[in-house]
Design brief:
By secondary structure, the protein is mainly alpha-helical. The chain has two domains: 92 residues; 61 residues, no CATH class. A two-stranded antiparallel ribbon has the order 1-2. The longest helix is centred in the N-terminal third of the chain and has 92 residues.
């Protein structure tokens, strides 16, 4: 009977040792899981901070995009105004020749330019009775880049 008790006692100690080993193993796993949890929480906080930062960056970029779109619209409007003005000026300058005996009539039709003004004043002061031929800017450009054959036709 003593032998039976001793075997029971050894068995109990063995069970206690196994339980203690399991307890130590579980505590180690718990410790490892707690470290992983803390690490995950830190990573989560970092990701949230990055998310907020990216959100602010996105808001800033959207605002910049809106400003750029507005600026582009303003530039497009300005460009269309310039194109309209250019086409109006072009229409006015298309008249290649103006034949006139009075310099003052022609002077009023052209753009007020210092060089043109001085030519008109010089012609006016000569008091010539001859008819004068004036070519508009588009005609002078045409003459400048035309071939000799084209000039003979004109």
């Amino acid at each position: 009977e003593k032998e039976g008790r001793r075997l029971d006692l050894d068995h109990s100690f063995a069970s206690l040792d196994a339980a203690e080993e399991e307890n130590v193993t579980l505590r180690g796993r718990i410790w490892d899981l707690e470290l992983r949890l803390r690490d995950s929480e830190l990573k989560c906080k970092d990701l949230l901070a990055d998310n907020l930062s990216l959100g602010d960056s996105i808001k800033s970029d959207k605002l910049s995009i809106a400003n750029l779109k507005s600026e582009k619209k303003n530039l497009d409007d300005s460009l269309s105004k310039v194109k309209r003005n250019y086409s109006e000026v072009t229409k006015q300058c298309i008249k290649p020749k103006i034949v006139c005996s009075k310099v003052d009539r022609v002077k009023q039709k052209w753009v007020d330019d210092i060089i043109l003004d001085s030519y008109f004043d010089a012609l006016s002061s000569n008091n010539t009775n001859k008819d004068v031929l004036f070519l508009g800017p588009s005609a002078t450009q045409l003459l400048k880049f035309s071939s000799d054959t084209s000039l003979e036709i004109i």
